């Protein structure tokens, strides 16, 4: 079900994690990311405007795959889908969230930090997982360690990933994308630095 995401990640395997205060900038931001060569973005639900941002980004750049991040509750799931989110991301999983997801777990990338969590999510039907917070829970070494005993699982490390180490993650066969806020930081967005965001995206893709 997330094949469209894997296909987009093969073209551009870097997912900007966005914290956007004002939905008014969403269209410019979406176009800046596409101009920079990106195919996927994750809008966190850490601001009240998150759902409006998802909707506005999809309207401005229909070719951009836009996910909702920081999905914690059943209402986050409902509102994200209503806003047009193509996929969902969470920092972890809870029994209530799992229950609320139902069939929509097919478009969810849940966060995990250990082999046990990865095994639990896999049993529950999640195929793609987010290693979170990647730099703290073992980073490249942890993913190398997971590869042999957990060969069916594919990861999107996020949390503390930098432009300098994105390529090290992406060189691993069990990593399909990396996520991070450095491409379009809150400061970049507040400053409306669309050209700077495009440049960082292009540079990161070239290095990766
Ligand atoms: C987050 O939680 O904000 C994301 O995982 C991104 O983390 P980063 O700011 O360390 O890139």
Automatic annotation (TrEMBL):
Pfam families: Aldolase. Signal peptide: none annotated. Pathway: Carbohydrate acid metabolism; 2-dehydro-3-deoxy-D-gluconate degradation; D-glyceraldehyde 3-phosphate and pyruvate from 2-dehydro-3-deoxy-D-gluconate: step 2/2. It catalyses: 2-dehydro-3-deoxy-6-phospho-D-gluconate = D-glyceraldehyde 3-phosphate + pyruvate. It is an enzyme of class 4 (lyase). Its EC number is 4.1.2.14. This is 2-dehydro-3-deoxy-phosphogluconate aldolase. It comes from Hyphomonas johnsonii MHS-2.
